[in-house]
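User: Could you walk me through two proteins back to back? I'd like the raw sequence and the structure tokens for each, with a short line separating them so I can tell where one ends and the next begins.

Assistant: Of course. Protein one, sequence then structure:
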Amino acid sequence: MKIKDTGIKTQDYIEKQRLIWEQHHGKKVPKGHVIVFLNSDKTDFSIENLYCISRKISTIMVTNGWFTDSREHTLTAIKWCELHFALKDVK
């Protein structure tokens, strides 16, 4: 979605899912994070379907084929990844 008109593409456009997530949560997506569609439907921009994850978790999700058409299953896999990294950081 076009949000500015500076002539610099990277500054003028933002992904629709990112814009919706940022407006709903009132903050910017942290650096190194992406907004994913929990049910893998890239036309479903409902806030319940958008989730912010780190690129590190995204890589694990893609590598293992854990993005599904089920919001619940995808969110469970994301939560597992978050727990895995949280426990790793405790040591």
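----
Protein two, same layout:
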Amino acid sequence: MRYHPLSDADRKAMLATVGVANVEALFADAPASTLLKAPLDLPPHKSELEVERVFSRLAARNTPAGRVPFFVGAGAYRHHAPASVDHLIQRSEFLTSYTPYQPEISQGTLQYLFEFQTQVALLAGMDAANASMYDGSTATAEAVLMAHRLTKRRKALLSGGLHPHYAEVTRTISRLADDEVVDMAPDIFGAEDLIARIDETLSCVVVQTPDFFGNLRDLTKIAEACHRHGALLIAVFTEAVSLGLLTPPGAMGADIVVGEGQSIGNALNFGGPYVGLFATRRDYVRQMPGRLAGESVDADGRRSYVLTLSTREQHIRRDKATSNICTNSGLCALAFTIHLTLLGEAGLAKLARLNHANAVALAEMLERVPNVELVNKSFFNEFTLRVKGDAGSLVEKLAAKGVIAGVPVSRLLPNAGLDDLLLVASTETNTHEDRAALAAALEEAL
């Protein structure tokens, strides 16, 4: 009966239990202006079989990333995840597990969270990491709030190379908290002078590398300037695979490192669910949002795992909490950990080199196309092209030819006057034939 609608008898029984005569009486306290005068203009209900047919027709209109040459990135990347990852995370003990409140029966969950934290801390070059966040954008906003708590200041400076979605989420949360956010102008070339804007009023500077436009950033001097003025440097990434090749943000002086872990173990999946990564220095752990799984021993001296830090409002008094949105994405974190364990350190480095090599090969090929200009001087596996005309219209033309060329910058920065810029990403999944198809389609369309 769980999927069947209520019968008239069911409704009468419920109304009698509540103590009202009819449905209208149930909503008597609602203002009349908020009530519908007539049913919504929606089609009549359909059977389960009919609904399945409707949604199958809708799904057939999609173009799956694996069916055509695909070069979309901008914060969500197509990588190959071994079949073993999906097989393992669907085991019932992982798929149905939730918060490990009882360590006696949650040792498996706590152990993989501990391993996940270790992996994230090593990748970021930091002392400690939490047991994940919702996604990269909320992790960024939480990092800014953490910096405010640590510095006792309420003003953040956002780089012009920060992903627009990450910046928007940070602005939204800051506005609700009456905090100040200073936005730098979109920085196409990665050449903005952040250091000149750093002073004693800032709690933090937020910089992404590789940035939204694909540029690689050396954070060392920015970190030094932040520390001279008592501010913190928050380093952001959207492409976790880049950490297999690039200098870790922690080694460049970052105080908090946050980003998106989707690239490792997690499919594109229509934009989620994803897994936010969050790491920091030992001195700041007490103000880190989320929770921390730690290693201990039980009464018999055997290795065991427990939650050693739970600073969210579900665990402690609300006024002492560091966050109220930091439930970890446990299953996605497990997929990340399984995939990274299968790769190992050497495997991740090899995967990162392959990504970079594919992107370089594509950039060199596209530079030879008339009316196409490569904007970047450096990049990992994503770069920006300047094309003749409107990049959004160009993407639509290429999609009609069966090539998904990338993301128009104007889609994420609609009023910035950057309509001729196109973000293109190339991972290990792209073949030489894919690259040739994009180059040919671009040349024909331009």
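The radius of gyration is 25 Å.

Let me know if you want the two compared in more detail.
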